[in-house]
Design brief:
The structure is a single chain. The chain starts with 8 loop residues before the first helix and ends with a helix. The protein folds into 2 domains: 31-204 and 387-484, D-Maltodextrin-Binding Protein, domain 2; 207-380 and 515-586, D-Maltodextrin-Binding Protein, domain 2 (3-Layer(aba) Sandwich), CATH 3.40.190.10. The chain is built from 17 helices and 15 strands. The radius of gyration is 26 Å and the shape is globular. The strands form 5 sheets. The chain has a 5-stranded mixed β-sheet with strand order 2-1-3-13-5. By secondary structure, it is an alpha+beta fold. The protein binds calcium ion. The site of calcium ion has 7 residues, from loops.
Length: 588
């Protein structure tokens, strides 16, 4: 869709205020693939595991179950994998493919499509197409409803159906250690229809941050605002007092924004609204209040938040471009001149507002901790349960040897080392276990370290095709345990990840209690469709109305009741009732 700037731009811009774009990419230079909160010490080397004895395949362990020691088989065996890859590489020649084939003894027969064809082709295969052993996806775009539908129909097999007969790393190393994970991936029928992984990127876990220009604050002698009023005062001074110090009092943009994920327009409603009422755009503003499904945009606090946003808008403190510019435009504006031009920007990280690889302007910004509103509310989003919404790896019922397929996928959870090799390649070439003097993003001793000198060489066999990355669910690594520079004064981005970590800490301390977080559910297909329909209708009305309230086209005093009434007409109560029903079942 071509974006055009018309006379409607302002209203359109404000309509996007509450757009519910998700956020995903971390924008980080450091590894973030397939990771979780589990860290800890290095697991024993997978290759050091005792080989299975006997010649008929795999051996029995002392538990009477089929052993999961490598190699998994002693006779030649093959699994077929349907996945997506956009790099145009031959996965059969991939370094980790060869490594894992050697470890397990199992050869892989790849069926690869481009990402844009994946879901369509997957659905065709599920509908009775080609025979395959394993479905896996880089994009992790298989939602719970789809997994449950295919699982209920017997098209994909529950991984737990193998737990009684096979030793399982996934069970022992992951599910048994993490009750939340175990519960989140267990369908209402008690089955677990795939292998999951979760992210452990700490700064990504609190995406609704407000980055403010600390060098401007220092120049003007402004203390960190702690309330919406102090935030407003800061913006006024940014606007009027040549905050960037270049002699031009008119080139500062007090508060800006852009339209894309991790810096999406909804982040404004996330950060600033949270001083007035709990507001988490990443969760479609849905949360639990006293165990009941609730939405932010009907609360009295939302109305007060609208008054505040209306004030910022009417006094010219909000960038007119804020809701129409894309991220590239925004960065160019901030990077092209002799000085920065943005005072405050809501975004997950500073890579949204300046090109962190090209200059050090990111060092001017700090993430302002959540503000305390007029009622004393000081809170920020908690999306910790959404880690488990999407699936990555599933066993096909069309498999001639589903147990082998299970054991192949399960082996990727054998140890942290296996996970690191799958995600990051060969130890000693692209990463190594951290030395004693290496410190992680969290300021404590690091566990792993990227090898910085391992620069890819064009035509080099290894570097063009060495890892699976996020193609399979794998043993998690802890994002915070990768070695990072600890000194901000060094030019460049070496310290960037440490900076993001530190800036995120105050947010984690204020995030909503877990009792307010609506879990994700295995919706039946018809309920899922009804939720999607209602959500689209309701949220587009909320966006449109918020734009009108903030720009003054609707009166916050006179039109609020009609707004609430219309939300009722659009089915808000039905929408909440579906969530209440699933939440009640979830708690049984
Ligand atoms: Ca200036």
């Amino acid at each position: 869709m071509k974006r055009t700037r018309t006379v409607l731009a302002g209203a359109l811009a404000m309509a996007m205020l509450l757009s519910t774009m998700g956020c995903s990419d971390s924008g980080s230079s450091a590894p973030a693939s397939g990771s979780s909160s589990q860290g800890g010490s290095a697991a024993p080397s997978a290759s050091a595991s005792a080989p299975a004895s006997g010649s008929t395949g795999s051996s029995e362990s002392s538990s009477g179950k089929k052993s999961n020691a490598f190699p998994l088989v002693t006779e030649p065996a093959t699994v077929s994998v349907f996945t997506n890859n956009d790099n145009g590489v031959d996965l059969s020649q991939n370094w980790f493919t060869k490594k894992y084939e050697e470890l397990t003894g199992i050869h892989v027969d790849w069926q690869v499509v481009n990402s844009d064809q994946y879901v369509e082709k997957l659905n065709l295969m599920m509908a009775g197409g080609d025979e395959v052993d394993i479905y896996s996806t880089v994009n992790k775009n298989i939602g719970k409803t789809l997994v449950y539908k295919y699982g209920s129909q017997g098209i994909i097999l529950p991984v737990n159906s193998f737990f009684d007969t096979c030793e399982s790393y996934y069970l022992d190393n992951v599910l048994k250690n993490d009750e939340t994970w175990y519960k989140a991936v267990t369908a209402p029928d008690g089955n677990i229809y795939g292998f999951n992984d979760v992210g452990s990127c700490f700064h990504c876990s609190q995406p609704i941050k407000m980055w403010v220009n600390k060098s401007w604050m220092d120049r003007l002698g402004i203390k960190e605002p702690t309330t919406p009023d102090e935030f407003y005062d800061m913006l006024v001074r940014f606007k009027n007092e040549d905050a960037n110090g270049n002699g031009d009092p008119n080139d500062e943009v007090p508060l800006s924004n852009c339209t894309e994920a991790t810096g999406s327009s909804s982040f404004m409603a996330g950060y600033l609204m949270n001083a007035f009422t709990y507001s988490n755009p990443s969760q479609k503003y849905l949360y639990l209040q006293d165990g009941k499904a609730t939405v932010s945009y009907t609360q009295d606090g939302w109305r007060e938040g609208l008054r505040y946003l209306n004030k910022l808008h009417s006094e010219g403190l909000m960038d007119p471009e804020a809701y129409i510019q894309d991220r590239t435009t925004m960065k160019n504006r901030n990077d092209s001149g002799d000085v920065t031009v943005f005072g405050a920007v809501p975004a997950q990280h500073t890579g949204v507002l300046t090109n962190t690889n090209a200059n050090d302007r990111w060092k001017e910004y700090i993430a302002l901790p959540p503000l305390t509103g007029p009622t004393g509310l000081c809170i920020t989003g908690n999306s910790s349960l959404s880690n488990y919404d999407m699936y990555r790896t599933m066993i096909s019922a069309s498999s001639k040897n589903p147990e082998l397929a299970f054991r192949f996928c399960d082996g990727l959870f054998a140890s942290e080392e296996v996970g690191l090799m799958a995600g990051f390649g060969e130890e000693g070439v692209t990463w190594h276990w951290a030395r004693d003097d290496e410190i992680g993003k969290d300021g404590e001793k690091a566990v792993y370290s990227q090898i910085g000198d391992a620069v890819p060489v064009e035509g080099d066999e290894y570097f063009n095709n060495y890892r699976w990355g996020s193609m399979f669910a794998i043993y998690p690594n802890n994002h915070s345990k990768w070695a990072t520079a600890q000194d901000m004064s060094v030019p460049g981005t070496d310290y960037y990840e440490r900076h993001l970590y530190l800036q995120t800490v105050p947010y984690k301390e204020k995030r909503a209690d877990i009792s307010m977080v609506m879990p994700s559910f295995f919706f039946q297909e018809d309920d899922n469709a009804e939720i999607a329909r209602l959500q689209t209708t309701i949220l587009s009305y909320v966006d449109e109305s918020t734009a009108a309230f903030v720009t003054g086209n609707k009166s916050i005093d006179n039109d609020w009741d009609a707004y609430l009434k219309e939300l009722e007409n659009l089915g808000l109560n039905d929408y909440l009732a579906i969530y209440d029903r699933y939440y009640a079942d979830y708690n049984k």
